Amino acid sequence: MKQTVNLFRRRFFVQAGAGLLASAGLPGWVRAMEGMAGMPKMQPNKASSDFHPDVEIDLVCKPAAVQILPGQPTAVQQYFAQLRKGPANTLAVLPGSYLGPVMRFEKGQKIRINLHNQLDEPSITHWHGLHVPAKMDGHPLYAIDKGQTYVYEFEMLNRAGMNIYHPHPHDATASQVYHGLAGAMLVNDREERRLELPGGEYEVPIVIQDRQFDHNNQLVYAGHMRDRMLGFYGDRILVNGLPDFHLDLASRAYRFRVLNGSTARIYKLAWDDNSPITVIGTDGGLLEAPVHKPYVMLAPGERLDVWADFSGRKVGSQFVMRSRSFSGVLPGMAERMMTMGGRHAQGMHGMHGMALPVGGDFPILSIRVTRQGHDSPPLPNKLAVIDRYRLRDVANPDRPVPIAISERPMSMLLNGRPYAYNDVQPGERIPFNTVQLMEIFHAAGDGHGMSGMRGGMGGGMGMMMSMAHPIHLHGQSFQILSRTVGMNGNDHYASVREGFVDDGWKDTVLVMPGERIKIIKPFQDFKGLYMYHCHNLEHEDMGMMRDFSVE
Ligand SMILES: [Cu+2]
Fold it and tell me: What is the pLDDT of residues 465-497, one digit of tens each?
């Protein structure tokens, strides 16, 4: 316990000294102390002699500086990786980016990753989307100090898909991700390879983030309690760590591997010429068949596999992927303030004009067709086989495991409690090797928050608030069984309702105000603690995070 206190005290002063601590502030620090109470100090996991890896990677997280904007380089925190063993295409650095290299694995590979923490604060890396033993999942319990190494060893059990690696230390996840610590992880398998989807230069990672810079090109981060309550919203869109992201492409089909790496911002992705957006996969990999949507909602932590077909387009033609306008994801008053002028709403006075409104209409990236493409592959009409769960498959058809969202100023909770180690409640104990029906809902009841929004003050900071939360569950992916919204939700809900792709495997689901979502999730192969939390990372760090104990 004493050690835990010292750990956080040190981080507090180190960050304050580095000027990063605009972010945490004393209340966050105090909350962290509460949440960390009772968290034992664990020995970092070491390599085991009977594990024979196919792939071995040294992964370092450390402070760095990157040229993002013209002028002064930006101080960031960054992952650097080195391949010690395995196929040469395992790591691909994104040029000029603070993001970690794109990792590429094959289903069935045995993987060892040696995480070296060279940050001036504790960290641990979580493999968002992977199905790995609890000890390999990057639980905050295993956070390591500067100079320490944590060895991960696991077999890749996931099907083909795009996953994320990012830090997961309690109360500092948002800050570390915001300052640059994140990367994409692709998994390939035989089922996917048979489809001969666009690969090589025709497969493009698209990691979307929002950031805010000061006059010296340095990252500005959540300085106000409001930023923690609502989430932090930057005024610059970066794709793969770059501003004004542009692609020169051939007139053929591409595969865009899209990931929302923002801490809080939700996107409503659409093509500016109003052609449908074609989705072939989500968080947990390929869909059974492509779906065509007017727009797609993408919340923090979610992924999309997009078929972007420019075949038949003239050389010289241009396209823009935009985030289209929507409403209802923030409490009414906050949304109006942030829509009218986020910078003032956040108490910031910058040079770049108004902040990007939450739910505003703005460009994400631009594309120009600069050359003729040849041999463009056709869009497969069947993609993958998904064994669909039915109610008869679950252990608890009449008693869904609740995930109740409660939203009050200063306390964002799940199932009525903030994060605390060793605080697993009866409803959070999951029998090993079962498939569970689960229900995610707003504790105040359907539609309550929406009617609050109409009332104006009801959505204000001082009273009941309801907002959208991307809820992420660690461990195996789940399937979405149903999505229902309260009667009052229609006005705002209409601006997002066609944008959900619920047909495939998911690990993060956007829960709109007033919505109830039923999911079916397996808890197989491994026992131990698996987290569930809001992937609005500011909410997560406020305590909107809990453990399931699979036992
Ligand atoms: Cu949340």
Answer: 689 999 999 999 999 999 998 765 567 899 999
Concatenated DSSP letters of 171-229: TTHHHHHHTT--EEEEEE-HHHHTTT---GGGEEEEEEEEE-B-TTS-B----SHHHHH
Asked if residues 304 and 254 have their Cβ atoms less than 8 Å apart, the reply is no
Give me ligand 1 centre to Cα 535, in Å: 6
Q: ∠ CA(205), CA(241), CA(222), 5° rounding?
A: 125
Beta bridge partners of 82: 58
Q: How many A from CA of 414 to the centre of ligand 1?
A: 9
8 A C-beta contact, residue 67 and residue 126: no
* Cα distances (Å, whole numbers) of residue 273 to 256, 270, 295, 368: 18, 9, 12, 13
pLDDT of the residue at 11: 38
What confidence tens digit (pLDDT) does each residue in 410-425 have?
778 999 999 998 999 9
- Pick among 2.60.40.420, 3.30.420.40, 1.10.530.10, 1.10.3860.10: CATH of 42-193: 2.60.40.420
CA of 201 to the centre of ligand 1 (A): 36
- According to DSSP, residue 144 is labeled B
- Determine the distance separating the centroid of ligand 1 and the alpha carbon of 540, expressed in angstroms: 7
Q: In a 10 Å sphere around its CB, with 0-12 CB exposed, 13-18 middle and 19+ buried, how is residue 424 labelled? A: middle
Instruction: Write the DSSP symbol of residue 380.
Output: P
Q: Over the range 462-478, which residues count as b (16 or more CB within 10 Å of their CB) and which as e? A: eebbbbbbbbbbbbbbb
The CATH number of 202-372 is 2.60.40.420
Phi and psi at residue 303, to the nearest 5°: -130, 155
Structural domain 391-550, CATH architecture: Sandwich (2.60)
* All structural domains of the chain with their residue ranges: 42-193, 202-372, 391-550
Does pTM surpass 0.85?
Answer: yes
- pLDDT tens column, 289-303: 999 999 999 999 999
Q: What φ, ψ does residue 67 adopt, rounded to 5°?
A: -80, 105
Q: Pairing between strand 183-188 and 203-211?
A: unpaired
> What is the Cα–Cα distance from 433 to 425, expressed in whole angstroms?
19
pLDDT value of residue 291: 98
**202-372 and 391-550 have identical folds:** yes
Phi-psi region of 271 (alpha: psi -120 to 50; beta: other; left: phi over 0): beta
* Rounded distance from Cα 470 to ligand 1 centre (Å): 6
Residue 532 CA to ligand 1 centre (angstroms): 11
